Amino acid sequence: MFDTFSIPFFSIIMPSYLGEYPNAASNRQIKFRRAIESVLSQSFTNFELIIIADGCTDTLEIAQDYYDDRIKCFYMKKQKPFSGAVRTMGIHRSRGEYVCYLDTDDYFKINHLEFIKNGIEKNNKPNFIHFADNLNSGEMAFGRMGTSNICHENNKKYFWPDDYNHDWKFILTYFYPNGIHIGQSGYMVCHIPGKMDE
Question: Is the peptide bond before 8 cis (omega within 30 degrees of 0)?
Answer without folding.
Answer: no
